[in-house]
Write a structure and sequence with these properties.
This protein is about 35% helix and about 25% strand. The chain has nine helices and ten strands.
């Protein structure tokens, strides 16, 4: 079977600053794949070229066997790929409910006006309620998103990605800035929403990475240093030396 996501020899430089150097990476259907590496390794840049926020300098990106290299973000999203961001990316002045509903309306390419059928409106409302229940924010539906606790804001952002009904979810540092308890809740949420889907996650918390990932890829100065299972990465001497650290 063709890999869901395939990255072939992708380079990215910014005015001569090389950030990605010949990245080769595959993500299989139903896999939970973590991307780890030190700050500046190119992790978020990799997400940005996959989703079309940045153009690649060279190489190819395939999704479900289709070449999506340098597609604009809205087009990438339409084919079944959604992401969250390292910095919370919600609509703070809208309610939690409105945040999710707007994504669903956009997905369905609907416009609410006098000609919109009642059934279409109820379908959107039902789907919105379903997403809110999934992310555990149904009781906060009328709360302005900007007033949510930080952990709940991150859950809402994951909900925005989930509302697109993607086949592949990209999560960029979903537990960044969270307390231990918030991190535990976030991991439970991620495990729940990715059941039956494919996940690529950038994460610094190694406990999170090794608890939820099927495979892990290590980026180091723009290159893939190693890819393997959690155990393989833990025991990889190059990874220990470059990133995880060796205990002597």
């Amino acid at each position: 079977m063709t890999a869901l996501l395939q990255i072939n020899s992708v380079d990215k430089d910014f005015s001569g600053l090389k950030v990605l150097l010949g990245i080769n990476l595959t993500v299989e259907h139903g896999e939970r794949h973590a991307i780890i590496g030190p700050n500046g390794a190119g992790k978020s840049t990799l997400f940005n070229v996959i989703t079309g926020k940045h153009r690649v300098s060279d190489g190819q990106i395939l999704f479900k066997g289709q070449d999506i290299t340098n597609w604009p973000p809205h087009k990438v999203c339409r084919v079944g790929l959604a992401r969250s961001f390292q910095v919370t990316n919600i609509f703070p002045n809208m309610t939690v409910y409105e945040n999710i509903r707007n994504v669903i309306v956009s997905k369905k390419r609907m416009r609410f006006n006098m000609f919109t059928s009642l059934r279409n409106i109820e379908d959107v409302n039902a789907e919105t309620r379903g997403v809110l229940e999934t992310i555990g924010l149904e009781t906060s539906s009328d709360t302005p998103a900007g007033e949510l606790a930080y952990g709940h804001q991150r859950a809402l952002e994951i909900g925005l990605a989930l509302a697109m009904e993607p086949e592949l979810i990209l999560l960029d540092e979903p537990t960044a800035g969270m307390t231990t308890e918030e991190t535990r809740e976030a991991v439970k949420l991620i495990e729940r929403i990715t059941a039956g889907k494919t996940l690529v996650i950038i994460e610094h918390d190694m406990d999170v990475v090794f608890s939820i990932s099927d495979r892990v890829s290590v980026l180091y100065y723009g290159e893939v240093l190693a890819t393997g299972t959690a155990e393989e990465i833990k025991e990889n001497q190059e990874v220990k030396k470059a990133y995880l650290g060796s205990k002597k």
